[in-house]
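Hi everyone,

Forwarding the result from last night's run.
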Amino acid sequence: MFRKVLIANRGEIALRVINACRELGIRTVAVYSEADRNSLHVRFADEAICIGPPRLAESYLNVPAVISAAEIADVDAIHPGYGLLSENANFAEVCRASNIKFIGPPPEVTRLMGEKDKARQAMKRAHVPILPGSDGVVATADEALGWAKKVGYPVILKAKAGGGGRGMRIVRAPEELPNLFHAATTEAANAFGNGELYMEKFVENPRHIEFQVLADEHGNVRTLFERECSIQRRHQKLIEESPSLQVTPKMREEISRTLCHCLKEIGYQNAGTVEFLMDDDRQLHFIEMNTRVQVEHPITEAITGVDIVKAQLLIASGVRLDEILPEKLEIRGHAIECRINAEHPVKFTPSAGKITAFNVPGGNGVRVDTAQYAEGVVPPYYDSLIAKLIVHGRDRTEAIAKMERALSQFIVQGIETSIPLHQAIFQDPGFRAGKFDTKFMEDFLARTS
């Protein structure tokens, strides 16, 4: 087991990793920007090192600064959390060259899955279902027109290096394509430094389903069932739950078996999430893989009893999966997560500032992952997520009841939060009945605004 781990992240995920390390007897090193000097991950780590000013590029995304901190602290490994450097293959390579273990997949695999067009082809070769689309990058608008004619409208242009909905455009007619191709290329280049696009058939109003996977360094791969992530706004998830109401035991078994075979073939290691769209015929189609721990991992932990972050640390230290997971995993009840964001619940504008009062709910089956506290400050420089509220019940009805109770007891004053929005969603008859897709929020906001 590692002696000391540096957490190359901030906020609740940094604190989450610190907690897992402490329970495993591993010393921790926090890195922080000047804006996060008084953050809880700094307070609770065994050591803390300032790596720069508030701007991400000068602190948390500054690879030389992070590596220098790791070398100064003499750590064995780096856990990247999610976001920031977690899916940066170059960072993983620098860790390897510095003889520091990167707690994640090998850089070659991260790079493969990060290039969405290549990831599609890898999944296709392993017989994981994918949407019809281009065989790779489409270099010009004319080439895109050819593929669109072959695939059939509507189609969607996606950034090869994309994520978070950027560099994406839906095309419903040939005359729209040239301008949308140019717009998607420009946005992708600005967001990711890579303007290359590929094309897929566009699924109208799909459900968003993802499968959690763990893979050790000895060729063993297991899935930890699926999560439903269809409640999202502008491709940003708001509510997740597990298991999905739409995935049958047969579907779950078939997809899991195929994924395990595919990920073993490509040499995948550590935690990851494979994302799918489900169409009207309840068929799943691969869209991308996230080569890291997900924001919503706690709901999988709730229904399986598996500590995913501890599993990451154990896998990276060489432990086999059969020493981490029970021989047979079973779904236990139902879990739901709400992402509590520091933003106006209707206007969706960011809300930074000092938190004057902060009370988190508790009770059986209620978990809150956060690094915020009363008198703490939410800086304007980073992601708006300030807490994750997770509930676990014997079934979905009980989980919803627990979530409604927990939301009513979650008090944040001094800033605006998304809590009122979550409360309104949980009152929606369609949501309560499980009748929703990725267009839910668009329709919901149109009805309630």
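The chain has three domains: 4-103, 132-201, 207-448.

Cheers,
N.
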